[in-house]
Design brief:
With about 325 residues, the chain is α+β, with helices and mostly antiparallel strands. The chain contains 7 helices and 21 strands. It has one domain: lpxc deacetylase, domain 1 (2-Layer Sandwich).
């Protein structure tokens, strides 16, 4: 177990990292080795992905809706001809822990998949420690119901006073099947109930994916792999790990709005494409307004005293990583 002391800034201010941290791995889809560094963000720039290009120049790509280029099995962002893919787990960890300003340096075309969850990146953030900036924290408040659907799948958003995601998966597969989870997303819930859930895939689809240049870095160590009737790499970290990973993805995908979305998001068999489509509709149709975070969410979960990180494997929900984010009375 590792205990990391963290500052306790008010949550009406944007938070960033106190120090830089790094991690290496391979890309899930490219299979290429890559190093990623998370560092304190620049004032007024939010979350930025920084990738070196020819001549040792550094190209910065703001993690914003307008820079999303592709949503096929991952989120790809790009600007001025430079692209980076599979960013969703890292930006999910940042959004889940309330980090609104960060520079993410990567030396390749894809973020590392590590173990297939957001847990390694949550641990990095905790190691870096968190500090408060003097920038006001903003939020997107949902004003009216919105829905996006495609081929029997949908995602919707409704006005609410909190960040809630209700997700249902429904696979015609004996191992995965149908499952639902509804969570109010704050630091405590994200760290304890969402971050450790790993991405998953079906053995029957591997050859098809690789023929399209996808999942070239997929391993039993970085994804839950589902065979015809069993898991190839049991056990699950939690009984409902599949649907919780979809919540993890949704947290990251919706963070491309550039600020927390205050409202109730409901999804049924959704995808990266539908997550981003909802974000586009909310902004494009004026169904959200940008307001001070404190006006719509308050600061009930703010003061962070410590995070407790359990190392090792997880045999089930009872053994899932326990992160304590204690709020002062």
């Amino acid at each position: 177990m590792r205990i990391v002391q963290v500052e306790s800034p008010k949550f009406d201010r944007i938070r960033t990292l106190a120090d830089q941290v790094e991690i290496s791995g391979i890309g899930l889809h490219t299979g290429k080795p890559v190093k990623l560094i998370m560092a304190p963000g620049r004032t007024g720039r939010g979350i930025e992905v920084c990738r070196p290009v020819a001549g040792h120049q550094l190209r910065r790509i703001p993690v914003r809706l307008e820079n999303v280029l592709d949503t096929d099995h991952c989120i790809t962002i790009g600007r001025d001809g430079v692209e980076v893919c599979t960013i969703e787990h890292v930006i999910s960890a940042l959004a889940g822990l309330g980090i609104g300003s960060c520079e993410i340096f990567v030396d390749g075309p894809e973020f590392p998949i590590v173990d297939g969850s957001a847990l390694p990146f949550v641990r990095l953030i905790q190691e870096a420690k968190v500090v408060c900036t003097d920038e006001e924290r903003r939020a997107w408040e949902v004003l009216a119901p919105a829905v996006v659907s495609q081929n029997g799948s949908f995602i919707s958003a409704f006005p609410d006073k909190c960040r809630r995601i209700s997700y249902t998966i429904d696979f015609a597969h004996p191992v995965v099947g149908k499952d639902s989870v509804s969570l109010e997303i704050d630091e405590r819930t994200y760290a304890r109930e969402v971050a450790a859930a790993r991405t998953f895939g079906f053995l029957a689809e591997v050859e098809w994916l690789r023929s399209r240049g996808l999942a070239l870095g997929g391993r039993l160590e970085n994804a839950v792999v589902v065979g015809d009737c069993e898991l190839l790499n049991p056990p699950l970290r939690m009984p409902d790990e599949f649907v919780r990973h979809k919540i993890l993805d949704a947290v990251g995908d919706l963070s491309i709005l550039g600020a927390p979305l205050i409202g109730h998001v409901c999804a049924y068999k959704a995808s990266h494409r539908l997550h981003v489509s909802l974000a586009r509709q909310l902004v494009g149709a004026g169904m959200v307004r940008n307001v001070p975070y404190a006006d719509v969410a308050g600061d009930a979960v703010l003061p962070v005293r410590r995070h407790i990180v359990h190392d090792g494997a997880f045999a089930g929900r009872a053994d899932a990583p326990e992160f304590s984010v204690a709020a002062q009375a």
